[in-house]
C-alpha cells in the first residue's frame, strides 16, 4: 500500500498535475492540502474516473482546505481538531480497512505562521498544542495511524538549505521543532528518516529567486507513522519531478510504502 501527501497550492490550478502524477504513480491514498476551493467545487467525478472512488473533503474558499482521496472505502470521517475552535479547514481524518486491520489516516495542513512574537505565530503554537492532544487520543484509540501533510516545520538543520542563516526564523524555531518532537513522543516515527536519504532532500522551494533551481528548499512535508506500522514501512521518498512542470505547486509529493 502506498500513501502520499501533496500540498497542491490550489487544486483548481493543479488538477491536471494531480491526474498526471497519479496516472504515473497510482498510490492507494493521496492526501491533498491547500485545495483553495469549497466542497461543492471539488472535482469528485474527475477523480473517481481516475480510480479514486472515495473522497473525504474539507474545503475552504481562497485559502486552506484538505482532502483524502482513496482507492479504498473511507469511514469515520472527522474534520478539524475536536475541542479547538478554528475557522480554518486544516485537518481531515478517515479510517481505511486494510487486510491487516483498520488504518487511521490524518491529513493536516499545519499553520504556516509568521515571525515569533506575532499573533499568527501564537496561533500556530496553540494549534500545534491542540493537535498533539488530539493525536494523543487518536493514537491510543486507533493504534495503526498515519499522519500526513504540510507541517510547515523543518524539524532538523539538515531539513533546511540554510540552517544557520534561518535559525529561529519561521519553520526553524525551537518552539516549532519542540512540537514536532512532541508528536514523535506520542509514538510516531518520521518515515522519511527510517531510510538513508540523499543530502539536501527538500519538499518545498520558494517560487522566488530561483529557489528550486538553486535547491534552496525545506523539508516541511512529512509522513509520520505509529509504532505498529513502523516495521511495515518499506520506503519513503520525495518526488521532485512535478516541481519541474509548468506552473507547478511549490511543494513536491512525498510517498510512503507500507
Features:
258 residues; alpha+beta; Deoxyribonuclease I, Chain A; 6-stranded mixed β-sheet; 5 helices; globular
Structure description:
With 258 residues, the protein is of the alpha+beta class. It contains five helices and 14 strands. Helix 3 links the parallel strand 7 (101-109) and strand 8. Helix 3 (119-142) packs parallel to helix 4. The longest helix is centred in the middle third of the chain and has 24 residues, at 119-142. 43% of the residues are buried.
Query: Shape, please?
Result: globular
Number of helices: 5
- Which second-level CATH architecture applies? 4-Layer Sandwich
The helical percent reads: 10-25%
Can you identify the CATH class? Alpha Beta
Task: Pick out the low-confidence regions.
Answer: none
User: What fold name goes in the CATH topology slot?
Assistant: Deoxyribonuclease I, Chain A
Kindly report the average pLDDT value: 97
How would you summarize the topology of this molecule?
Elements: E1 2-7, H1 11-24, E2 29-33, H2 44-49, E3 54-58, E4 66-70, E5 74-79, E6 91-98, E7 101-109, H3 119-142, E8 145-150, H4 174-185, E9 188-190, E10 204-205, E11 217-218, E12 221-226, H5 227-230, E13 235-238, E14 254-257
Parallel strand pairs: 1-2, 7-8
Antiparallel strand pairs: 1-14, 2-4, 3-4, 5-6, 6-7, 8-12, 9-12, 10-11, 13-14
